[in-house]
Description:
Blueprint: H1 8-11, H2 24-36, E1 43-47, E2 54-62, E3 68-76, E4 83-89, H3 104-107, E5 111-115, H4 154-171, E6 175-185, H5 187-198, E7 204-208, H6 215-221, H7 228-236, H8 241-249, H9 253-257, E8 264-269, H10 277-286, E9 292-297, H11 307-316, H12 318-321
Amino acid sequence: MALFDLPIEALRTYRSRSAEPQDFDAFWTKTLDAARAHDLGARFEQVDCRLSSVDVHDVTFAGFGGHPVKGWLVLPAGTREPVPVVVEFLSYGGGRGLPHTHLLWASAGFGHFVMDTRGQGSNWTTGDTPDPVGSGPALPGFLTRGIEDPHEFYYRRLFTDAVRAVEAARAHPLTDASRTAAVGSSQGGGITLAVGGLVPDLAAIAPDVPFLCDFPRATTLTDRHPYREVGEYLRTHRGRTEQAARTLAYFDGVHFAARGRAPALFSAALEDQTCPPSTVFAAFNAYAHEDKHIEVYDFNDHEGGGPFQEAAQLRWLPGRLTA
Length: 323
């Protein structure tokens, strides 16, 4: 697929028509207050993974509803003083997998907290966190689970888990809470934007080709999943378009971006049919912090920059975490 979205000149000024709910902040304040009524209960159990360069901890903490959520904390071997920590959120369908696949940030001298994704982890890598909450009729994916009501929507639980994951990462004595960053690609990028809007004191965020942005455009522009899940749901459940749009507005990365209070490094790929570039630029252009940058990959689909974007993050992020 060649270029199919807006030209780059238009992307740089594009603004989403996603309507922010009037009670957006109240909705999220109430949601997080309810989650924090449960003891975070972060537990770290060191495990032997036969890796000499890192120390690995199996993590459990209380997420949405007090539900147990798993993760990994990977630290440079022999860490004795608190180090900056990078909290990573994962792409659609994936789980925390195995520790030896998460060596990048510890190799750069940082702590690396990887949050498992409730109910996922059965597509490209394994997960260990069930989602104990049911929903109404939904497609096999996650983007329509609970779409009838923002209080029941799957991503309310997942975004809440993510905020609590930052709190869990900061709870370990060898991480420096004042130097915490959030990163993620695709779904992980969308979660990163949500965390950036909900956690006021992050040092940096790096959303890579983020999913979950500019729902009004994304769900009508691309026929690729996961966004297509919404169209297929509405094709069957006729007359629920406004109801679905109302729910999705509470989870749109554009609205979280407008609350972003940390330096940010985005990326977009101009042939990306999964997360079309206009939807990424919608969040980038709305992002509130003046220290923001975006890497653009002209001839790439949803793989984006891949290792080149990781290299860009390795150049950019240390300056925000070591100051």
